[in-house]
Structures are given as structure tokens and as C-alpha cells.
Amino acid sequence: MVRKATAVLVAAVLLACLMGAAYAAPQTLLLEFKGEPGQEMKHDVEIGFEMDMSAMNPGTGEQVFALSPRFSGALVTIDRVMEVADNGDLTLQSQVESFELTLDLADLHLDMSLQGPDGGPPQLLKLPPLPIEVVMSKHGKPLALKGLDKLPLPPMPAGPEGKQFDIKAMIEGMMDTFAQPTLPDGPVSVGDSWGWEAELDLSKMMGNMIPDMPPEAKAMLSSMKIPVKTTTTLAGLETVGGVECAKLVADSVWELEFPVGPGIMVEERGTTTVVTWFNHAAGHTVKEVVEVDVNMRAGTPDAAFTQMEMEIRVESMLR
After folding, report:
1. Greater confidence, 26 or 260?
2. In the predicted model, is pLDDT for residue 80 greater than 90?
3. Band (14; pLDDT cuts 50, 70, 90)
4. 3-state SS string over the chain?
5. pTM, to two decimals
6. I need a labelling partner for 211 at 20 to 30 A (CA). Which of 113, 132, 159, 286 fits?
7. Domains in the chain, please, with CATH?
């Protein structure tokens, strides 16, 4: 009888524990980037790019040309933590240690690589760190770019009245628009979502790049405003590279329509999906997959003069 009573008591306790676990508050995570000055993280990166573009003669409907470039690459990159501010802001520097790139365009096949013996890092010639350092908040928001003036850009053609195009101003303008945090500003649980919305104003962006833009160009660009919306979800917890990671899925969508002539419209639709496996304990990314799909059409409602489809995929993995 005692054994039976004890068994009933144990079963009741187990049932209570299981019910309590079922109704317990979900686990919350505080996702923040972390690092120490001098810390280095090496990533293996794979890049794939495909585009199919064709143009038709508006009068006859015959195909004028078709292009299908293909690009692939494998890189080894190094990210360094240069500084960490008291509030958690990180200053980061990047370097490409080795690469292998392939380009196919019609009859052109191009291979480029920089590797050492046995496919390792180069021994005699090493690529220097990029001259740009990124200042980023602990939530992943880019705050500033250092060293843009040292970026080795090719000479740009002069704009109206002989003034040079200002690439630096364009990059800074885009950063002001799209510099949004990738991580939430508070604790989240599996299934929670957060996001942001922005509008890319091409007139403003090109105005920063070309100070004296002709009025007709300004008028055309004024209608080219691209609304972009990004939503990120904590999809779950997964073990990657031997560590527990928060799996973050971010989706961005955009649409653009603008006239380029009587009855002729340019329409563009695009989506970007970024899946990130984030080591929430150490505060850094372990794996990330970026996929971009773009469809563009130019023509009348009845006939397309130009069509383009583009796919980009980038995958990086921490060594």
C-alpha cells in the first residue's frame, strides 16, 4: 500500500512539473553584438550571381540582344574588432585573405584567384585590410564609416559644369536611409518579430552625388521613390558549429514603377531574405545566408521592350 501511495505521489509531482513547464513563460534572449579589441573572426564566403536580360525591338518585336552573365566566388575574409566603446559600439575592420572568382559572359570566361600553397592563404602577396572601418551599435546599426576618402575608387566622369560625381556623399546618403539595427532593442522570444520601413529617394541620393543636376533629370527622378520594408523573426534556436544559435529570418520587399516615355513604364519587384544564425552567448554571427531576387520589366502594358531577372546568393560560415 505504501509503495502504491508513493507511486501515485511521484506521478502527481511529475504531472505538475510537466504542466508547469507547458505553461511557463517562454525563454527570452537579449541579442547584442559583443567583442574585444583585437578579436578576429575568419569566415568562408561563397558568392553566386546569375542574371538573364533581353531587349526587343519595339517596332518588330524581334530580339535585339540577350545577356546571361554568371559570376561565382569563394573568399576567406577576416573581421577585426578595433575598438569597443563604453556603450557597446564596435569599430570593425575587414580584410580579404584569399579569393577565387569566376566570370562567364557570352564568349568571355575569366578566372581570378589569390591563394597560397595547397589553397591556403597567400604567402608572398597579401591583400591589405580595407581602408574603411565601420562603427556599429551593439544592435547592429551602422553609425559611421571611417576612411571613405581613402577608398581606391576609379576616376569618375565629370557632371554638369565640370563637377565630379561625389561617390562618398552617395554612400553616406544611402547609409542614412538604410542604417537600421538588425537586432531588437530588448529581450525577445521564439516567434517574436521586429522591423523597420524606409523609402529610397533616388532624387535625393543622386542630388547628393551630382550637385548641379539638370531640372529635367530631377523631375524624372522625383517619381522614383522605392519603399522598403524589412521584418525579422526569431524563428528558433539551432545548434550550428557546435554552439546554440538564435536563428533570425529577415525578409525585405520593394516595388518600383516610373514612366520613361509616353505609355512606357519601368516596373521592378525585388525580395531579399537574410537568414542568420547568431551566437547569442558570444554575441557574433556564426552563419549567414543572403538571397536576393529581382525582376525588372520596361515597356507598354502589351509588350515588354526589356526584361531582366537577377538572383544573388551569399553564404558565409565562421571557421
Report:
1. 260
2. yes
3. very low
4. CHHHHHHHHHHHHHHHHHHHHHHCCCCEECCCCCCCCCCEEEEEEEEEEEEEEEEECCCCCCEEEEECCEEEEEEEEEEEEEEECCCCCEEEEEEEEEEEEEEEECCEEEEEEECCHHHCCCCCCCCCCCCCEEEECCCCCEEEEECHHHCCCCCCCECHHHCECCHHHHHHHHHHHHCCCCCCCCCEECCCEEEEEEEEEHHHHHHHHCCCCCHHHHHHHCCCEEEEEEEEEEEEEEEECCEEEEEEEEEEEEEEEEEEECCEEEEEEEEEEEEEEEECCCCEEEEEEEEEEEEEEEECCCCEEEEEEEEEEEEEEEC
5. 0.80
6. 132
7. 2-318 (2.30.230)
